[in-house]
UniProtKB/TrEMBL annotation, chain A:
GO-annotated molecular function: oxidoreductase activity
Protein name (database record): FAD/NAD(P)-binding oxidoreductase
Segments forming a coiled coil: none
Superkingdom of the source species: Bacteria
Domain FAD/NAD(P)-binding: 5-326
Lineage: Bacteria, Pseudomonadati, Pseudomonadota, Alphaproteobacteria, Rhodobacterales
InterPro entries in alphabetical order: BFD-like_2Fe2S-bd_dom, BFD-like_2Fe2S-bd_dom_sf, FAD/NAD-bd_sf, FAD/NAD-binding_dom, Metab_Enz_Cyan_OpOx_G3PDH, Opine_Oxase_asu/HCN_bsu
Organism of derivation: Marinibacterium profundimaris
Alphabetically ordered keywords of this record: Oxidoreductase
Chain ranges of the BFD-like [2Fe-2S]-binding domain: 376-426
From TrEMBL, chain B:
Protein's name according to its UniProt entry: FAD-dependent oxidoreductase
Spans traversing the lipid bilayer: none
GO cellular component: cytoplasm
Alphabetical keyword list: Oxidoreductase
GO terms of molecular function: oxidoreductase activity
SUPFAM superfamilies: FAD/NAD(P)-binding domain
Gene3D superfamilies: D-Amino Acid Oxidase, subunit A, domain 2, FAD/NAD(P)-binding domain
NAD keyword on record: no
Superkingdom in the source lineage: Bacteria
Residues annotated as domain FAD dependent oxidoreductase: 7-348
Lineage: Bacteria, Pseudomonadati, Pseudomonadota, Alphaproteobacteria, Rhodobacterales
Length: 465, 372
């Protein structure tokens, strides 16, 4: 599998899958890498169980995912599934770990379509067993058609609240409550943009009707401010944000999410220029109209470059794949313009809809300041807000100092969960990030090094005595 | 004649510069310390923290032994904890050729005063039960250990503030000139004057010395390291190999740091450096070969940092020739280990006292030296 290609695509979701198909359709030798067992990414995640397969056949996302997987099977794209990319070197060499060991893939062009990660505004108890991400809930349902929990509360912000609640109903789980940071006015403001996508608007209306019929309470302008229970969740405290009134809800499972942020570790590792952009999940990678980043030969599409949602990702992916083919010399200017024109037209329309969703999902940065002192920020290393304040009092002014003074970000997730939250506490108006370093996922030593003889290790010449 | 702003300006807030600033301030000097970033964020904060004799050049052993003692007593003289653990150290030989290197090096270091002796594979396994039973022999040193390098900045920052050193972090120095009674230190926001100046810029002492017209070539090494996630205990010593290309130890919180000077890629002028996958795999294989149970761990981070080296790989510590009151400190091989003691000796010279042990003046490295 190691070897040379015309273009490598990292991520086989809507953006990466389409990028690979577009580049391959233009004649490029394409390698497509994904950490999942099959293409589809998060939103078009491949069903694993029989129940999930049956459900996917009835669901628009499920059908689109199935179609993408079929097109990829039929295309001459070299697919490496179940492979975790852990490093990318300029030029480009992409290192990834699969069940068969470490693979080094080479290509002069690289398309990053790495998707998004969920953000959670920390609150006391957010690390209690029984608290899950909202996006994690959709991942479990799409692959397994099941949801952990009996008494569930769904909280956070954005359209995922409704989607998860409806899917829970389909599983016979009636949510105890939906806790939505937004108010009716925020949703009304989004309505005209949603109306630009009549099919989506109709689906949303159907879902709301079902929640109403099932009698699921929706608590507007409200947020979960604490979760109780030691070894397992036993309830949540919900605050009505305008009045400050608090209510307790018994629950064994909380699904909560405060929007998405680009999974941009590889973009940053390769030095692509970025801009702070709250609407796009905190920070977006700068791309031109053809999805080229500031690094020659490097393209970025989909939520990994800036959160837009699945639909724009499809078209960005197509454009990126065609641009790679154009830059490779496989398409002339006219062919590139003709092939990319439909995607550009549909992208413009999809973006209006996407921006309305993104606004509802924008992370509530200002509320970081409300976090109580004993609230855990870095769950890998158990670093609390008070530890961060103490480090700041000792002179920590940047993320690396904060890390060194507290161990924040030094655990298995390397700050992917806590980095932006800690940066928001350290310098609310700043643009602070951890220094990007490989591996972008923890790597199994066993898989990384494989079997070897001592004599094969290229030990450098001895240091001077 | 105007009064200067400071008695001493130190340029470079790594462990060498910060130690000189600290000791000088405690002797009553008015000291200002500049760094282009935060304290101890280059080599001093990103190295493996090993406090070992078995990777130290023989000529530096006497200094390293003194420094090791200082590290162990850091809470007393520094006043703050840098997580120092003193433990046994083993250097391993896996092949006949390595046995030979190991024997030679153990002998040379032992002659220089390090308590190093050769031990059988059986005895090595008794000292370090986690070690690969296939080793041929090892050298054991009872003076070994490690610090938590990433705590260096925090600990020194507190100590410097308490000692009254004026800290100017994130303040790059753009140039240096002689003035009536000392030196003008130029920065973007203006500048200061100081009677004496110390250049302690790590790999950047080469461009710093150019400010004074001195041409001292400094080689830039780009050392690469890796760390595992927290794990149950797998080892209790500091481990190396005969060639010096491995350093391995497990911190009390469970992470294992893998170092040894495998090279990444980078460039001093742009200040950027990055790890390479090839070095990561090679270094990890060596580590697993030494401690086989490390195979079950996961690496969470790989990083790089600069190390400075002179042409003869011996330190640049002493006066800047032709510039009274200007000093340089850097390029100390195993510099993290030896830093506090090197800094103590240089501070004695700055104060006009004879240093406890000889410095390493740079005259020997300058063009024209020894040619007449």
């Amino acid at each position: 599998m190691s070897g040379s290609h015309d273009v490598i695509v990292v991520g086989a979701g809507p953006a990466g899958g389409e990028a690979a198909l577009a580049a391959s359709g233009a004649g490029l030798r394409v390698a497509l890498i994904d950490e999942g067992p099959a293409p589809g990414g998060q939103v078009w995640r491949a069903p694993r169980t029989a129940q999930a397969q049956a459900a996917a056949a009835r669901d628009p996302d499920g059908r689109q995912g199935g179609a993408l997987r079929k097109r990829l099977r039929d295309a001459s794209v070299t697919l490496l599934a179940g492979a975790e990319v852990w490093d990318a070197e300029p030029g480009f060499v992409v290192q990834c770990l699969a069940a068969t060991g470490n693979h080094a893939l080479q290509a002069p062009r690289l398309i990053l379509a790495t998707g998004a990660m969920e953000r959670v505004l920390p609150f006391p108890g957010w690390t209690t067993p029984g608290v899950f991400g909202l996006a994690a809930a959709t991942a479990i349902m799409k692959s397994e058609k099941t949801l952990p929990g009996k008494e569930i509360v769904i909280a956070g912000q954005g359209p995922l609240l409704i989607a998860v609640a409806v899917k829970a109903l389909e599983l016979g789980l009636r949510p105890r409550a939906i806790v939505d940071r937004a108010g009716p006015r925020d949703w009304l403001r989004a309505a005209p943009a949603f109306a630009a996508m009549p099919s989506m608007l109709a689906r949303g209306a159907r879902w709301m009707a079902r929640l109403k019929a099932a009698g699921v309470p929706i608590l507007r302008q409200s947020a979960v401010v604490s979760a109780g229970g030691c070894s397992a969740l036993d309830g949540v405290t919900v605050r009505h944000l305008p009045s400050g009134r608090e209510t307790e809800i018994a629950a064994d499972t909380l699904y909560i999410g405060n929007g998405l942020t680009p999974a941009d570790e590889l973009h940053r590792l390769l030095g692509a220029a970025q801009t702070r952009d709250r609407l796009r999940g905190g920070c977006r990678t700068e791309v031109d109209a053809d999805q080229r980043t500031s690094v020659p030969g490097l393209y970025a599409a989909g939520d990994g470059a800036g959160v837009h949602g699945a639909l724009p990702s499809v078209f960005q992916g197509q454009i990126a794949g065609l641009a790679a083919a154009r830059d490779h010399g496989a398409l002339d200017a006219d062919a590139f313009a003709a092939r990319s024109r439909p995607a550009r037209r549909r992208l413009a329309r999809a973006l209006r809809f996407a921006d309305a969703s993104c606004r509802l999902m924008t992370f509530p940065e200002d509320d970081l300041a409300e976090m109580p002192p004993d609230c855990v920020v870095c769950r890998c290393e158990d670093v609390r807000r008070s530890d961060i304040e103490a480090a700041m009092a000792s002179g920590a002014a940047d993320m690396n100092q904060l890390k060194h003074f507290t161990r924040l970000g030094m655990g298995p997730c390397q700050g992917r969960m806590c980095g932006l939250n800690a940066a928001g506490l350290l310098a609310p108006e700043g643009d602070l990030r951890f220094t990007p370093r490989a591996p972008v996922r923890p790597v199994s030593m066993d898989r990384l090094i494989g079997e070897f003889d001592y004599s094969d290790i290229p030990v450098p010449k001895p240091a001077p005595l | 004649m105007t009064r200067t702003d400071y008695d001493l300006a130190v340029i470079g807030g790594g462990i060498q510069g910060a130690s000189v600033a600290l000791f000088a301030a405690r002797e009553g000097m008015r000291v200002v310390l500049f760094d282009k970033g935060a304290l101890a964020r280059q080599a001093s904060g990103t190295n493996a923290g090993t406090l070992t004799m078995q990777m130290t050049r023989a000529a530096l052993i006497p200094y390293a032994l003194k420094a090791h003692e200082m590290w162990v007593n850091a809470p007393q003289w520094l006043g703050h904890d840098v997580g120092v653990v003193a433990c046994d150290g083993l250097s391993l030989a896996f092949t006949e050729a390595e046995e030979e290197i190991l024997s030679q090096r153990a002998e040379a270091r032992s002659a220089a005063g390090a308590p190093i002796r050769l031990v059988s594979s059986r005895e090595a396994a008794r000292i370090e039960p986690g070690v690969n039973p296939g080793i041929r022999m090892a050298s054991h040193c009872s003076v070994d250990g490690y610090a938590n390098a990433y705590l260096t900045g925090l600990a020194y920052r507190r100590a410097l503030v308490e000692a009254g050193v004026e800290l100017r972090e994130y303040t790059p120095v753009s140039g240096l000139g002689s003035s009536g009674r000392g030196y003008d230190i130029r920065t973007e926001g203006g500048g200061v004057t100081a009677r004496q100046v110390v250049l302690a810029g790590g790999v950047w002492i080469e461009p710093m010395l150019k400010w004074l017209g001195i041409d001292l070539p400094i080689k830039t090494l780009i050392n690469q390291l890796a760390v595992t996630e927290r794990a149950a205990p797998v080892m209790r010593t500091v481990l190396g190999i005969a060639s010096g290309l491995l350093s391995l130890k497990q911190y009390p919180h469970g992470t294992v740091v893998i170092g040894g000077g495998w090279q990444g890629e980078g460039d001093r002028d742009s200040g950027t450096h990055r790890a390479t996958a090839a070095s990561a795999v090679g270094n990890a294989r060596l580590a697993v070969h030494a401690i086989p149970s490390l195979r079950r761990s996961r690496i969470v981070r790989i990083w790089t940092g600069f190390e400075a080296e002179t042409a003869d790989a011996l330190p640049a510590v002493g006066p800047v020739p032709g510039h009274p009151g200007a000093w340089v400190i850097g390029s100390v091989h195993s510099g993290y280990t030896s830093a506090p003691y090197m800094a103590r000796c240089l501070t004695q010279a700055i104060l006009g006292r004879p240093p406890e042990m000889p410095l390493f003046p740079i005259d020997r490295l300058l063009p024209g030296h020894g040619s007449h």
